[in-house]
Amino acid sequence: MSATAAARKPGKQASRAGAAAEPSKRRRKADSAGDRKKLKDGGKMNEEISSDSETESPAQGKIEEEEEEELEETVQEKKLRLAKLYLEQLRQQEEEKAEAREFEEDQVAGRLKEDVLEQRGQLQKSVAKEIQAPAPDDIRVLRGHQLSITCLVITPDDLAIFSAAKDCTIIKWSVESGQKLHVIPRVKKDTEGQPPGHCTHILCMAISSDGKYLASGDRSKLILIWEAESCQHLYTFTGHRDAVSGLAFRKGTHQLYSTSHDRSVKVWNVAENSYVETLFGHQDAVAALDALSRECCVTAGGRDGTVRVWKIPEESQLVFYGHQGSIDCIHLINEGHMVSGADDGSVALWSLSKKRPLVLHREAHGLQGMPGLEQPFWVSSVAALLNTDLVATGSHNNCVKLWQCGEGFQCLDHLFDIPLVGFINSLKFSSSGDFLVAGVGQEHRLGRWWRIKEAQNSVCIIPLRRVAGPPASSS
Fold it and tell me: What confidence tier does 119 reach under pLDDT thresholds 50, 70, 90?
């Protein structure tokens, strides 16, 4: 090989190497361009990532701070903190319990105080001033009897009323609807095979405090005992020698007291269908009777002019004087006080510890008759809302009067009149004090001295709405 050829070969190799280097340069340029693009894109990505991290950084910072704080809190400090929290919870619970206990103690103390006052006969809740006079349209009139209403009672749950009349029937009424729930019809005298009932004027009724038994007494000397719910006849008590004029159950028991025109007071056990004893003392026909939870009863002595308190276990009596006329109606206000009415037009408030009236309100229902010959309207019925200062009286002067007994029963103040035409022969307050029921007739329950033709023989339900005021107090 010549030197020229040898020189050419290296040249060719160099040119090949140069030719090979050019693509590598181009690849490097392309790579560098790609790197620049990647860097550029990577910069954008870095920018986006950094922006996201900026938005999340405060929360992450908080978490980190809390973690640092937790890490910084020692075990002893954590125990102390939890102990303080526990003690605070215990303190709050004890305060709540103490408040609840104090509230309960106040309630119990108030109830115990009321119970003590009630047993002493000194409980007098102030409700009379809260009572509003009802509008005439609010009075509901229930008609069903053919003759004058003589007596009525309200069931302890205030859902029903029993009324009796001179037509010898007993009607059970629904207080809510005013509809008749049951009628015990009149029976013919000396007729066998007929259902039990009365054949003469019914003068008095009583219902037990549990609402189980109803007792009714008539002019034919009989006392009939009924199951109050179904009006089914249970027993007939005989023993009085004249018209049965008054009946009352001892509160909380099935012990029944009865009085009669034969001047006696009898004691019965209704649950055992048995007679217990007879007490004597009145000098004339006894007109009315009432009783509460004590083992005693009070009677209105009619024309003998006395009120008597009978102590059943001792078989003794206390005699009270005050009215000038015949004492025809009586009602206990609480265990220590009572109200009575007479045909001399007077209303009296009594304490069982004093023989004379605490208050004697004469001509309570006004006067009637020609000038110079005026006579007072007879007080034919009285009622009292148990353990309160509210009293109602009835006559035949076309109204029922409501009264407030002053503190300690030292006065009797007239509140307002409720217009009702006819003889008000019976008055009863509901247990709740939400309404007053009046038995109205054209004639007096004991006779036919006058007759008011425009009167309706009816049962009137009088609502007693209360005005908003301070809570009722007791003394």
Answer: low
Count the helices and strands in the chain (H runs, E runs).
2, 30
Question: Three-state SS for 311?
Answer: strand
Tokens of residue 351, six digits: 């304490």
Q: Which residues pair with 37 in a beta bridge?
A: none
Per-residue pLDDT, 80: 86
- What's CA 303's distance to the chain center, in Å? 39
Q: What is the DSSP letter of 304?
A: T
Q: Is the CA virtual torsion 107, 110, 113, 119 positive or negative? A: negative
| Nearest alpha carbon to residue 378 among 311, 467, 287 | 287
pLDDT class of 117 with cuts at 50, 70, 90: low
Contact 238, 221 (CB under 8 A): yes
User: For residue 333, what are its two tokens?
Assistant: 């206000």
Q: How far is Cα 334 from Cα 387, in angstroms, rounded to an integer?
A: 5
Q: What is the DSSP string of 152-203?
A: EEE-TTSSEEEEEETTS-EEEEETTT--EEEEE----TT-TTS-S--SS-EE
Residue 184 region, left (φ>0) first, then alpha (ψ -120 to 50), else beta?
A: beta
User: Can you read off the two tokens belonging to residue 297?
Assistant: 């009863």
In 200-287, the DSSP E strands lie at: 202-207, 213-218, 223-227, 232-237, 244-249, 255-260, 264-269, 274-280
As a dihedral over the C-alpha atoms of residue 361, residue 362, residue 364, residue 368, rounded to 10 degrees, the angle is 180
Where residue 98 falls among pLDDT bands split at 50, 70, 90?
confident
The tokens describing 283, both together, are: 């000098």
The length of the chain in residues reads 475
Report the SS3 class of residue 29. Answer: helix
CA-CA distances (angstroms) from residue 442 to 103, 190, 323, 414, 449? 53, 29, 26, 26, 11
> Within 13 Å, how many C-alpha atoms sit on residue 307's CB side?
33
pLDDT averaged over every residue in the chain: 84
Contacts of 198 (CB under 8 A, 6+ apart): 164, 168, 169, 170, 184, 186, 187, 216, 218, 220, 222, 224
Q: Work out the average pLDDT over 281-306.
A: 94
Q: Identify whether the C-beta of residue 364 lies closer than 8 Å to the C-beta of residue 379.
A: yes
Amino acid at 276: V
Q: In angstroms, rounded to a whole number, what is the distance separating the alpha carbons of residues 320 and 331?
A: 14
Residue type, 192: E
**pTM of the predicted protein model:** 0.75
CA proximity to 163, closest of 205, 222, 198:
205
Q: State the Rg of the chain over Cα.
A: 47
Q: How far apart are CA 262 and CA 297, in angstroms?
A: 17
379 close to 393: Cβ distance less than 8 angstroms: yes
Residue 13 has pLDDT above 60, yes or no: no
